Amino acid sequence: MDEGEFLERVKAAEKAFANIELIGTDLAGVDLRQIRLPGACLTDVDFRGANLTLADFSQARLIRVRLSGAHLFKANFSAAHLAGIDFCAANLHAANFQDANLSNAYLRAVHLTQANLRNANLSGATLRGAHLTGAHFRDANLTGAELTEAIVAGTDFTGANLQRVKWND
């Protein structure tokens, strides 16, 4: 589906786009609240500053997708492939990343308060300055992740792999 058709269907209040493939689509700043993209394959899509509150990206595959500054309150990324994705300064409060692959993701200054990252792969991820209060990293893989300047009060790291994690000096 091309960008124009997708936006026309969104304007017509369509919300469900299971298994859709979008390539090179500019959705920066677009209001996509409650959009459902389970199993989607998204390549070179720009969601910077978009409102994706309650969006469903479960089991989606994102490649070179930009989500910096996006509003992703209670978004569902369960079992999604998000390796290397840029979430810089995104609001991910109460988002669900259970079983997601966030290896080498850029999560600088994100708000992951109350987020579910159980069993997620965050190896090599950058969470510098992230607000992680109340987040659940139970059994997550954080090998080699950077958490300098992160706020971790009340964060659950039970069973998480914290080998080579870079904390505050």
List keywords for this structure.
5% helix; little secondary structure; 3 strands; three-stranded parallel sheet; Pectate Lyase C-like; elongated; 169 residues
Please report the first level of CATH classification, the CATH class. Mainly Beta
Going by CATH, the architecture would be 3 Solenoid
Helix content: under 10%
Q: SS-based structural class?
A: little secondary structure
The general outline is: elongated
**Main sheet?**
3 strands, parallel
Assembly state (oligomeric) = single chain
Q: What is the strand tally?
A: 3
**Strand line-up in the sheet with most strands:** 1-2-3
Number of helical segments with 4 or more residues: 1
Can you say what the CATH homologous superfamily is?
E3 ubiquitin-protein ligase SopA
What is the strand content?
5-15%
What does this structure look like?
By secondary structure, the chain is largely without helices or strands. It is built from one helix and three strands; from the N terminus they run H-E-E-E.
